[in-house]
Amino acid sequence: MPPILLSNLTKSYGRNKAVDNLSLTVNEGEIYGFIGPNGAGKSTTIRLLLNFLKADSGEISVLGFSPGKDEVKIKQLTGYVSSDTFMYSDMTPGDLFRFTQSYHQVKAPERIRRLVEILDIDTGKKFEQLSFGNRKKVSIACALLHSPKLIILDEPSNGLDPVIRSNLYELLKEEQRNGAAIFFSSHVLGEVQKFCTRIGLLKDGKLIKESSVENFTKVGYMQVRLETEDPIDFSALAGVAALERQGRNLRFIYSGTPDDLIRMLSGISISSVHIEEPELENVFMHYFE
Question: Which residues pair with 10 in a beta bridge?
């Protein structure tokens, strides 16, 4: 049984369908990037997985259990990082680590010490004294301290500096190597492209595209960057879009045939040229512009 299995899942708020007949699978040892614009239904889907919300229809399986019947069991086996970081203001991270160990029925002092060091957590201050980013680091440590089989992350890198963000990715890669499945919702598309193994794109509550990271950006066009001092007339070349020029540097999207592009470029003096698959952000905009 895969760690996450959704079948025809629907959830509405009044007349608005936040999740619309959604079906997807997240496999063991996979890092699944869950992307989409604000209001697409990503956070609603996560809340349904953890039984914070009840579905109108459809089936949900988390680690082989039903959220409606086995909520406590699922939460004991799962690590979850919310996009928000609400904590009791008079508690310290040390207090929360003790509570989290008790909830998950583990004793992990060495694990906690390592997480505190890697994430640079101040365990002595109360949460009311900690910034959003520092509270987020504590939330991440709590989600990982019991070595969960499934890790669910909703915008986990918000508020983190680049060093801690890099350390987070290394921690998650380590969990993946140990067999954990990771469900990763993020607006930072660059990190999804570098970090995830498969991506699902949500729009208006529906899964409109899903594939491996390698295939996700193969959408029938290329990203071209070149450097030249020569003027170029693109009017005779079909398939050029989003043309930008800054001094000697040109950048555009090309959906025509490679032979036509190379034939045109062979007639001008070029210092350098790069032809590559588009970045994930370009693909994202392709579906939402």
Answer: 57
User: What pLDDT, on a 0 to 100 scale, did the predictor assign at position 286?
Assistant: 65
Q: Are residues 169 and 234 in the same domain?
A: no
59 forms beta bridges with 7
Residues 52 and 148 in one domain: yes
Cα–Cα dist 236/230, whole Å: 16
Q: Which residues on adjacent β-strands are paired with residue 224?
A: 252, 275
Condensed to tens digits (0 to 9), the pLDDT of residues 216-257 reads 776 667 889 999 988 888 888 888 888 888 988 998 888 888
Give the pLDDT of residue 37: 85
| Helix intervals (H) in 149-257 | 162-177, 189-195, 213-216
The answer to whether 224 touches 275, Cβ cutoff 8 Å, is yes
Rounded CA-CA distance 104/34 in Å is: 26
Give the chain's count of helices (H) and strands (E).
Answer: 10, 13
Q: Among 153, 185, 216, where does a domain finish? A: 216
pLDDT of 110: 96
Residues 135 and 207 placed together within one structural domain of the fold: yes
Spatial neighbors of 160 by CB under 8 A, at least 6 apart, are 133, 136, 137, 168
Token pair recorded at residue 60: 């949900």
Domain final residue, candidates 194, 216, 238: 216
Give how many domains the chain has, as a whole number.
Answer: 2
| Residues of the domain holding 274 | 222-288
Statement to judge: residues 142 and 278 lie in one domain: no
Domain identity same for 12 and 114 = yes
Q: Which residues contact 73 (CB under 8 A, 6 or more apart)?
A: 65
Arithmetic mean of pLDDT, 120-148: 94
Burial class (CB in 10 A: 0-12, 13-18, 19+), 168: buried
Quote the pTM value: 0.81
**Encoding tokens for residue 112?**
């906690």
